[in-house]
Design goal:
The chain folds into 3 domains: 3-117, no CATH class; 121-239, no CATH class; 247-373, Jelly Rolls (Sandwich), CATH 2.60.120. Helix 2 (38-60) packs antiparallel against helix 3. 28% of the residues are buried. By secondary structure, it is α+β, with helices and mostly antiparallel strands. It has 11 helices and 14 strands. A 5-stranded mixed sheet has the order 2-1-3-5-4. 41% of the residues lie in helices and 22% in strands. The model is unreliable at 1-10 (pLDDT under 50). The chain crosses the membrane at residues 12-30, 37-59, 65-83, 92-109. Keywords: Membrane, Transmembrane, Transmembrane helix.
Length: 375
C-alpha cells in the first residue's frame, strides 16, 4: 500500500474515533440523568456511529470507508461498555482519550495553524486579494470550494446551494447549482486554482475537475469571462456583457464496452466537442447504492504524442455534456475554450477509455458525441 493511502486510512479511522468518542462522552452524561438502561445507550451510540460512517462514505463514494470506520467505531463501543471490570474499563478509557487527542491534533492541526497565522505573508498571498481588484458592493461566489476567501476579504458572499463543487456528486445537485448560476447571476466568481501544474482543479479522490458539475460549468462559460488574474492561485471572473449560447449538434452515438479505447480520429481538432456517457448498473448494485455510492469510473485520456492521463469520476455526472477533445489542466485553461487563439494551443485528446475494476457496472454503455458551436 502506498504511503498516502495509509495516511488517508489513518485519518478515516481517527475521524471515526473522534466522532464516536465525543458521542460516547455525551451519552455517558445523558445516561446518568435520563437513561437507566445501559443497552439503550450502547444502541444509540452504535447507530450514531453508523450514521456518521454512512454520511461520510456516501459523500466520498467509498463502500470501504463505511465498513472500516463502522467496524472501528463498534469495537470501541463494545470495549468501553460491555466489560464489567473497572480496572480494564479505565485502561480502555485512557487509550481512547489518548487516541482522541491525537486524532484532534492530526485532523485539525492545519486548520488551527491557518487560523492563528492567517495574517502571515504566506497566507496573505494565498487568501488576501488587493483592494483595488475588489468591489465590495458586488456579490461574489467562490469556485470550486475555498470559501475562506470570502471571509478573509470581507466579501458579499452568495454561495451556490452546493458550495463545494466536489460534493455535487449527482445530476440533481449539479442542476441546482446550474440553476443558481443561471438565475441568481452573482456579479463575480472568484476561482481558486493552480495555473502552473495539474491540480485536478482542487477536487478530491484523484477526480478530474472538468467532469464535475458539467451543467454548472456550461452555465459559467456562457455567462462569465475572466476579469483579472490576482496571483498564481486566484483569478476573478465577471458577467459577460452578452451571454454566449452553446448549441450542441449530435455527431455520433454508439455503444461501447468498459475497457475499450474510443478513438476520436474523425473529429476536427479545430472544433470543440462534448460527450455524454450513460452507464447501467446491475440489480445488486442498485440495491447496494441505497447504503453507499457506487465506486468511481476510471477514465484514461490519450493525448497527442500518446501521452496518457488517468483519473476518477462520478459516473452519473457523465450523463450531462462534458468536454471531450481538449484537455484542460486548470480552470484558467477552461475559460480558454471561448478564446479562439488560446483554444488552439490546448492539448488535443485523441482517444478516451472508461474502465472499472469494481462490480456493479454492466459492461456496455452508451457514448454520444456532440459538436459545440462556440465562435
Amino acid at each position: 500500500m502506498q504511503i498516502y493511502e495509509g495516511e488517508e486510512y489513518t485519518k478515516n479511522y481517527l475521524a471515526a474515533i473522534v466522532v464516536t468518542g465525543f458521542f460516547s462522552m455525551l451519552l455517558y452524561y445523558m445516561r446518568r440523568f435520563f437513561f437507566s438502561y445501559n443497552g439503550l445507550s450502547i444502541l444509540i451510540l452504535i447507530l450514531l456511529a453508523f450514521y456518521y460512517c454512512f454520511s461520510y462514505s456516501f459523500t466520498r463514494g467509498s463502500a470501504s470507508l463505511f465498513f472500516k470506520c463502522s467496524v472501528v467505531s463498534v469495537i470501541i463501543f463494545l470495549l468501553m461498555y460491555l466489560p464489567q471490570n473497572t480496572e480494564y474499563k479505565n485502561r480502555i478509557y485512557n487509550v481512547v482519550i489518548i487516541t482522541l487527542s491525537f486524532g484532534f491534533i492530526n485532523n485539525f492541526y492545519n486548520d488551527i495553524l491557518f487560523l492563528t497565522n492567517w495574517n502571515h505573508d504566506q497566507y496573505r498571498y494565498k487568501e488576501r486579494i488587493p483592494n483595488n481588484q475588489l468591489d465590495r458592493s458586488k456579490t461574489y461566489d467562490i469556485y470550486p470550494n475555498i470559501t475562506s476567501i470570502s471571509y478573509f476579504n470581507n466579501l458579499n458572499y452568495q454561495p451556490r446551494p452546493i458550495f463545494q463543487s466536489y460534493s455535487a456528486y449527482t445530476p440533481r445537485l449539479d442542476s441546482l447549482n446550474s440553476y443558481f448560476i443561471s438565475e441568481k447571476k452573482v456579479d463575480n466568481i472568484i476561482f481558486h486554482t493552480s495555473l502552473n501544474n495539474v491540480s485536478w482543479g482542487n477536487t478530491i479522490d484523484e477526480r478530474y475537475f472538468l467532469f464535475e458539475e458539467p451543467l454548472t460549468k456550461i452555465e459559467i462559460l456562457e455567462k462569465y469571462t475572466i476579469k483579472d488574474k490576482i496571483n498564481k492561485s486566484l483569478f476573478i471572473t465577471e458577467k459577460r456583457k452578452k451571454n454566449i449560447n452553446i448549441k450542441f449538434k449530435l455527431i455520433d452515438r454508439r455503444f461501447c464496452t468498459l475497457g475499450s479505447v474510443i478513438n476520436l480520429d474523425l473529429i476536427n481538432p479545430d472544433k470543440l466537442y462534448f460527450f455524454t456517457a450513460k452507464f447501467k448498473y446491475s440489480n445488486k448494485a442498485k440495491a447496494i447504492s441505497l447504503l453507499y455510492k457506487l465506486p468511481y469510473i476510471s477514465v484514461e485520456l490519450i493525448k497527442d504524442h500518446n501521452s496518457k492521463i488517468r483519473f476518477n469520476t462520478v459516473s452519473d455526472l457523465l450523463s450531462h455534456q462534458c468536454v471531450l477533445n481538449k484537455y484542460c489542466s486548470n480552470y484558467y485553461d477552461y475559460f480558454s475554450l471561448f478564446e479562439e487563439s488560446k483554444f488552439k494551443s490546448l492539448e488535443n485528446v485523441k482517444a478516451i477509455k472508461f474502465y472499472s475494476n469494481q462490480r456493479g457496472y454492466i459492461n456496455d454503455f452508451e457514448f454520444t458525441i456532440f459538436e459545440a458551436s462556440l465562435f
